[in-house]
Amino acid sequence: MLISMYTVKEMFYTIQGEGVHTGRPAVFLRFAGCNLWSGLEKDRDSAICNFCDTDFVGTDGNGGGKFESAEALALKAKHLWPNEAKSKPYVVCTGGEPLLQMDNSIIHAFHEQSFEIAIETNGTIQPPKGIDWICVSPKIGSELILTKGNELKLVYPQHNGDPKQFEHLQFDHFSLQPMDGPHRDQNTEKTLSYCRQHPHWRVSLQTHKFLGIP
Fold it and tell me: What tens digit of pLDDT does each residue of 168-194 get?
């Protein structure tokens, strides 16, 4: 795959709010576009993933834009990382669906800037080699292609989605995350109950939302 230009909704420095790396400082790089929903409200009801709570349309977010090279993109991310930091810089590539745009050039460019690279993907596209942390968030109704990685993080509950159908896959960590929305409190109770009964799963909370950080 050869990308002539990378389209980014937003890019900012923050604290990872969910999953195994909750609490870790990170540059968040949100690519525009997704293969399971257009991102437009008029298409939500017919989308494969109709519960997404993220704006990934366009390039008008904080730090967003169009980048003509992977090197320019990686350099922009490096400028967001604190100069005095002694720890290895960490970038989380998300979306939308980041693997629509991520290619070998991006992996190389970020590693050249000493970044540890993480992705958050819906698992419908195989990634290029060299990504350091792979987190897959399956969406029921889509075809799961990426069946191994570091973390499987399932938004719960999903219609016709049983967490047991994923337990045989090759991941190091399995997380259930309550679906946000008008039934968040009820979904949180269901998630807590499921994890108590099935300790194969950990609870993942979207802590950035109640901390008020991006």
Answer: 999 999 999 999 999 999 999 999 999
**Catalytic residue flag (residue 49):** yes
> What is the per-residue pLDDT across 38-70, written as a single tens digit (0 to 9) for each?
999 999 999 999 999 999 999 999 999 999 999
**Number of domains the chain is built from:** 1
Domain range spanning residue 92?
Answer: 6-211
Closest-CA residue to 115 (of 206, 13, 4): 13
Q: Does residue 1 fall inside a structural domain?
A: no
In-domain check, residue 152: yes
Q: Which of 43, 53, 162, 189 is catalytic?
A: 53
| Active-site residue, selected from the candidate residues 10, 31, 34, 166 | 34
Residue 135 annotated as catalytic? no
- Of 14, 22, 54, 59, which is the active-site residue? 54
The catalytic residue among 7, 18, 31, 52 is 52
Answer yes or no: 79 catalytic: no
pTM above 0.85, yes or no: yes
